[in-house]
UniProtKB/TrEMBL annotation:
Organism the protein comes from: Novispirillum itersonii (Aquaspirillum itersonii)
EC number: 1.17.1.9
Name of this protein: Formate dehydrogenase major subunit
Keyword 4Fe-4S applies: yes
Domain spans labelled 4Fe-4S Mo/W bis-MGD-type: 8-64
Family, per entry: In the C-terminal section; belongs to the prokaryotic molybdopterin-containing oxidoreductase family.
Organism domain of life: Bacteria
Keywords associated with the record: 2Fe-2S, 4Fe-4S, Iron, Iron-sulfur, Metal-binding, Oxidoreductase, Repeat
GO biological process: formate metabolic process; respiratory electron transport chain
Keyword flag Transmembrane: no
One function term, GO molecular function aspect: 4 iron, 4 sulfur cluster binding
Signal peptide limits: none
GO cellular component: membrane; oxidoreductase complex
């Protein structure tokens, strides 16, 4: 912790780590941060914070920061520092040469959930308008893309239903595949407070998290399922509700599509979905499932909160729809204390999705093939746009290996470390003729880059982030850009060099364009945000003051839609050679692949990734606490230290993914969600052996 003494002034801004979106006052001495103080009037945090937001900001001025543009002809040569003009010209020349040789669809880009809405908006605009295709995807592809799909299918919009305050009205919390006390600490504390005040909690997770058991907390039910069997559990919960007469008929009849409901009711009533029938699949005693279903259906206001333990599966989208079915069949949607709520991992996952980062959707989740919507963008942007959806991130990698995709702009994401099956990603990047990385540091992906464009930290940014409760918060610059440019300016320069001039005088002007083109943002402007603090979308004529709770009088799609959610086992199976299942998660002090937190004092709290292994599995392998072990899958191998722990059931091991030296994604597979290609990070068959035996 660095304390530079007394501040001279302060700047109100937003934490750039998780999707809680805490507001902070950056107390400054000139351009030096003295300390970060959680803001008491912050809509998301009300004066609270965690060790990341409070202490882990030093990366912004770390000596590893690269602040000059750099280029090189091949990835085997050293970098050359050049001017912005030369770097942009070099990048544009290469991208145009690729398009001349391989066609306009041979290039694309990836937007970042770490960047502001305004930065994301101009990147996707550049790709659609200057690159001339829809090959734009977001790093949310690898985390919450199933949320987007599943909630849109059932409710009609791709976002969580509640504001954070709503949890104070909950009587039952159903927490699925999420560990909020580590990954969303400020909201996790709010949940714990509510539980201590009497709310009951049901946890669906292979791991015994703090919400299962910690001081003053004991879950009513812990459904400790085998990784990969979420859908079997959610169906079993729904089966109990339907077959035991716990359906909220009045809600269903008033608010839901009755034809779809009848179809679903017949489907879910089938005995194959009963807790007894799936017990052997999930490993969860049927009586626990029955008890949990009764509590969720009859315990008062029941709210679902979920995380990547839901989405990062081959049935991630199915599971999201299964949870929406549960909420609708019990009438737990559309008022305080209930709902279906994704806990977003990154600060601006919600925003990067809202801003049109998907290859098939413009901002506001409108399909690129919709002639009316496309015409609106064509008029404002002054160019014809492609009606064909573009490539998703994994499709870009496959197309690169196949020879038809040759140029990639990677904005603020370390895909070589964070995407699954690292060896496949590396081969795809190596095959490209132009990789442009825009980031704070020379990350792992930069090893494959030809152009490095330095990015700005949140302390230099001017713009907005949108948190997990759809709250649009201002991010204000506490110091000048260390690179001499705003990131959106760099994007505009590249677009212009590609032949499509894009010009804005400020981030506020970009937000004005977002508001003009995006119905859910119609009433948003920097002036309003500066006056009112924050706004929760939709903000428009129907909801001029924003929307804390969604689907109050009706679903966005009209009638709520029950979806059939058949359980299909993942292809990833344990075997004689790979007898254990690996699943992954986060720890409080660290963040994602650690690019930022490892460059702060927080690293002292978690200097390496650890493999948690059940005592029985450890004993069978002669592993003791602290031993170095090899972790191998069908895809790759890595080494790390073991910790004997009964938080995991026998047959399941667990690790974090914060340190590149471990590189947990070396072992993860290419399996992905059937609807969105979100990778199945949470189920990998592995073998674990003492290092000196391999
Ligand atoms: Fe930042 Fe999330 Fe911690 Fe809040 S809870 S301070 S947003 S990391």
């Amino acid at each position: 912790v660095i304390d530079h003494g007394q501040p001279e002034h302060s700047v109100l801004t937003t934490c750039a780590y998780c999707g809680v979106g805490c507001s902070f006052k950056a107390e400054m001495q000139g351009e030096t941060v003295v300390r970060m103080v959680p803001w008491k009037d912050g809509g998301a945090n009300e004066g609270h914070s965690c060790v990341k937001g409070r202490f882990a900001w030093g990366y912004a001025t770390h000596s590893d920061r690269v602040t000059s543009p750099m280029i090189r002809d091949t990835i085997h040569e050293p970098w050359r520092k050049v001017s912005w003009e030369e770097a942009i010209g070099f990048a544009a020349t290469r991208l145009k040469a690729i398009q001349a040789r391989y066609g306009k669809n041979a290039i694309g880009g990836i937007t970042s959930s770490r960047c502001t809405n305004e930065e994301v908006f101009v990147v996707q605009k550049m790709i659609r308008a200057a690159f001339g295709n829809n090959n734009v995807d977001t790093c949310a592809r690898v985390c919450h893309s199933p949320t987007g799909y599943g909630l849109k299918q059932t409710f009609g919009t791709s976002a969580g239903t509640q504001d954070f305050r709503s949890v104070d009205q909950s009587d039952v919390l159903l927490v699925i595949g999420a560990n909020p006390t580590d990954a969303h600490p400020v909201f996790g504390s709010r949940m714990k407070k509510r539980i201590r005040a009497g709310a009951k909690v049901i946890v669906v997770d292979p791991r015994r998290t703090d919400l299962v058991e910690s001081p003053h907390i004991r879950a009513e039910h812990h459904l400790q399922l085998r990784p990969g069997t979420n859908v079997a559990i959610v169906n079993a919960l729904a089966h109990v509700i339907v077959t035991e007469g716990l359906v909220n008929r009045a809600f269903v009849e008033e608010r839901c599509d009755l034809t779809e409901f009848a179809r679903w009711e017949a489907f879910i009533s089938d005995p194959r979905h009963s807790p007894e029938a799936v017990e052997a699949i999930t490993g969860v005693p049927a009586a626990e499932v029955r008890g949990a279903a009764r509590l969720y259906a009859t315990g008062g206001n029941a709210a679902i909160y979920y995380g990547l333990g839901v989405t990062e599966h081959s049935q991630g989208s199915t599971m999201v729809m299964g949870m929406a079915n549960l909420a609708m069949v019990t009438g737990n949607i559309g008022r305080d204390g209930v709902g279906v709520n994704p806990l977003r991992g990154q600060n601006n996952v919600q925003g990067s999705c809202d801003m049109g980062s998907f290859p098939h959707e413009f901002s506001g989740y409108r399909h690129v093939s919709d002639d009316t919507v496309r015409a609106l963008f064509e008029v404002v942007w002054g160019t014809a746009l492609d009606p064909e959806p573009g490539l998703r991130i994994p499709n870009m990698f496959d197309a690169s290996i196949g020879g038809s995709f040759r140029g990639l702009y990677v904005h603020g994401e370390d895909i070589a470390q964070s995407d699954p099956n690292t060896n496949h990603v590396a081969a795809a990047l190596e095959a490209m003729e132009c990789v442009i990385v825009q980031d704070l540091f020379l990350n792992e992906t930069a090893n494959y880059a030809h152009v490095f464009l330095p990015g700005t930290s949140f302390l230099e940014k001017d713009g907005t982030f949108t948190n997990a409760e759809r709250r649009i918060n201002r991010v204000r610059p506490a110091m000048r850009s260390q690179t001499g440019k705003h990131e959106w300016e760099v994007t505009c320069d590249l677009a212009a060099a590609m032949g499509y001039p894009m010009r804005y005088d400020s981030a506020a002007e970009i937000m004005d364009e977002i508001a003009r083109l995006t119905p859910t943002f119609k009433g948003v402007s920097f002036d309003r945000l500066d006056r009112e603090g924050s706004l929760q979308w939709p903000v428009n004529d129907a909801a001029p003051n924003g929307t804390p709770l969604m689907h109050v009088d009706g679903f966005v799609r009209g009638k709520g839609r029950f979806m059939l959610t058949d359980y299909v086992a993942t292809e990833e199976r344990a075997s004689r050679f790979f007898p254990l299942l690996l699943t992954t998660g986060r720890i409080l002090s660290q963040y994602n692949v650690g690019t930022q937190t490892r460059r702060t004092g927080n690293v002292a709290w978690h200097p390496e990734d650890i493999l948690e292994i059940h005592p029985h599995d450890a004993e069978e392998r002669g592993i003791r606490d602290g031993d170095l072990v090899s972790l191998a899958s069908r895809k790759g191998a890595t080494g790390l230290r073991a910790m004997i722990s009964d938080r995991m059931p026998q047959g399941v091991v667990y690790t974090t993914f914060h340190h590149p030296v471990t590189g947990a994604n070396v072992v993860t597979t290419e399996n992905s969600d059937w609807a969105t290609n979100c990778p199945e990070y949470k189920v990998t068959a592995v073998q674990v052996t003492l290092s000196n035996q391999t």
